[in-house]
Write a structure and sequence with these properties.
11 helices, Rossmann fold, alpha/beta, globular, eight-stranded mixed β-sheet
Length: 278
């Protein structure tokens, strides 16, 4: 099986037509190589995305590749896949499942296979573990429609340690993530509860993996709203002292050079839509 990847990467100064990275801790542009050195020393790397954006996935793959080539044991955490699909993910990585058969499982979980295919092929080629992080679709849909209080004792029993303490700050964060298109009301509150439930369950799945494989760096691929520090990283912080970094793509109207802060991410990736990374 032949897999084609972009071969080089260097982030240039602001104003260059190539993609580059802003270090939000000091407001300075930083080389890709120095970012990778930083990531080698943490356990979780959250990389946000717009799901249909090829540039975002290209950047994710290059970070995964660079960490793998540095000799760090790498795993990939996937918002796109439910935990119940872990057996199929393991078989895929081991080479014991054809692409045709794997796609039946993949499409039961997610869509847009052409956008993600090279990441899955790379994991298979390099024997990088793939981790399904997501919760049952039925539960998130129920909470989004009727709220966390609608869950039965049996359903809550499947979610040990999960809480949904949505406050005003979290609601304002969700409005910003969504570009300000949500309004007040019970439906928005329930939506926020579903998002927090989702984040908490994914955080627990990551910590479960790291408890068994503490030497790994897990690159977590998720929608930008989950990757912001207020999302999954906040739920990690509540449960354990695990070092992490957050890399977000610049998204006009949501997070940009002019308004991004270290409270939201560690690094802002700029210009990812301008073709292959150099």
């Amino acid at each position: 099986m032949t897999v084609l990847f972009a071969t080089g990467l260097s982030f240039a100064a602001a104003g260059d037509c190539r993609a580059h990275i802003l270090n939000l801790s000091d407001g300075q542009y930083i080389s890709f190589e120095n970012v990778i050195k930083d990531l080698e020393g943490v356990r979780l790397v959250f990389m946000g995305e717009l799901h249909d954006n090829e540039g975002h996935h290209r950047a994710q793959l290059q970070v995964i590749r660079a960490l793998h080539e540095s000799g760090v044991p790498v795993a990939i955490g996937l918002e796109m896949m439910r935990r119940e699909s872990q057996n199929a993910l393991d078989r895929w990585v081991a080479g014991n499942m054809s692409e045709k058969d794997f796609l039946k499982v993949y499409f039961d979980n997610w869509s847009m296979w052409p956008k993600y295919r090279e990441i899955f092929l790379a994991a298979r080629q390099w024997k990088i573990p793939l981790l399904g992080l997501n919760i049952s679709r039925a539960i998130t849909q129920q909470v989004a429609k009727n709220g966390f209080a609608s869950l039965s004792p049996e359903q809550i029993g499947e979610l040990p340690g999960v809480r949904c303490d949505v406050d005003v700050n979290y609601q304002e964060y969700m409005r910003r993530v969504l570009g300000g298109h949500m309004h007040n009301g019970s439906s928005f509150l329930h939506f926020c509860e579903a998002q927090m439930l989702w984040d908490t369950v994914m955080a627990k799945a990551l910590l479960d993996f790291l408890s068994t494989y503490p030497d790994h760096v897990v690159v977590v691929l998720s929608g930008s709203g989950h990757a912001w520090k207020y999302g999954i990283p906040e739920q990690i912080r509540r449960q354990a002292a695990v070092p992490f970094r957050v890399l977000l793509p610049e998204i006009p109207g949501r997070i940009e050079v002019e308004n991004a802060t270290p409270a939201e991410a560690d690094y802002l990736m700029i210009g990812l839509d301008q073709g292959p990374l150099h």
